[in-house]
Amino acid sequence: MILNIAKKEWKLLLKEKGTFFWLLGMPIMFIVLFGSVFGIASSSSVTLPYIDMDHTPTSQSFLKTVGDKSGYKLEAHQSEGMQDQIDKIRDGKGTALLIIPQGFEQSVKKGDGNPISLELYREATSDSVIAPFRAVLENLANGYRETKINNALAESGQTKEAREQVLAAPFTIKDRMENGSGYNVITQVVPGYTVMFVFFVIISMLKRFLGDKESGMTARLRSTRMSPMSYLLGMWLSYLVITLIQCTVLLTFGHLVYDLQLGDLFAICVLVFMLAVCGTGIGLAISMLVRSDNQGMAFTQLLTMGGAVLGGLWFPVDLMPKTIQTISHFTPQYWAQKAFQDIMLRGVHISGIVNSLLVLAIIAALGLIVALVRYKRFLRTALG
């Protein structure tokens, strides 16, 4: 009986072309769009105009060093166009402008304690773009200061070893990456949108349950010997399989197209299964709780979109305020995304994602219990 109900749902879903667009086409489009946009943004260089009023070998060497160390593409402009560049920044059409004033070489070589000022014009909203560039300028200024100190010590008769000891940094930084593989935008986007669109299956479940109720199909079930458990399990099984196929397609797409490293495949399979159980379990509960399609869509949008933001599907949870990070622990999306990244980035196996699996299982069980409790009321409200 359960399998017959599931087969009936599969046949209906195959006839609805829009279902495949929402469950497969749309998430693939999102993965391609955001993967490409953020991938290009992270690898492309920012062009930053400059005006060199000094025109000396020292200023040219300085600008070359800035470009090499910062990764920015520096674009030369004439001093006559300085006001035009500033106007562009003021109008929001430009990002920044670096001015090397006349006398730069003389100030660097003379070093009389009266430093010359470089001018960095910037647009008010470009802090995140300009901050790395400003940091490079400050590091170079420190480098020139150290050179000045070194020359002064040399003139005072200090040996090379003594000068190096004085100028030695009090600490050094050793960058040690502990993840099994490096983090990149794909390890955020592919599992993130896979998790997000799993919960969109709730929309299809809502339409089917409410459609059956309005058409009288649900009312006719009251005259049969079918138990509530059989009906719910049959409907649940059909969408569970659909969700499993959805996750498999999206993760395979990420692996083949973007070379996403999946990690332990057994752990991935168990996680995908539990995620599908959780998503469809919540779908059963919402389908039994809501009274109309509009109400159901509102709940679903709140769950999918709100959960995507709070659960760290669009950007890492670590970037959020502490309070939001705490709230995120109450969303299934957080635990699913955490488990995916534990497997893909940190190289953990099934034993390392037990907590995430347990949370997803509890939420799925609660969803099924709510659906069973509300099923009789759902039948009473059906049209006969």
Labels describing this entry:
mainly alpha; abc type-2 transporter like fold; 384 residues; 68% helix; 4-stranded mixed β-sheet; elongated
Structural features, described:
The chain has two domains: 2-39 and 181-380, no CATH class; 47-167, abc type-2 transporter like fold (3-Layer(aba) Sandwich). Helix content is 68%, strand content 5%. It contains 16 helices and four strands. It has helices at residues 2-15, 17-43, 57-70, 82-90, 104-110, 127-155, 160-167, 185-198, 201-215, 217-221, 228-258, 265-289, 293-310, 322-328, 332-344, 354-380, and strands at residues 47-52, 73-76, 96-100, 119-122. Strands 2-1-3-4 form a four-stranded mixed β-sheet, with helices on both faces. β1 (47-52), α3 and β2 (73-76) form a beta-alpha-beta unit. α8 packs antiparallel against α13. It starts with a helix and ends with a helix. Mean pLDDT is 81; it is low at 40-44. It is found in: Cell membrane. It is a multi-pass membrane protein. Its main location: membrane.
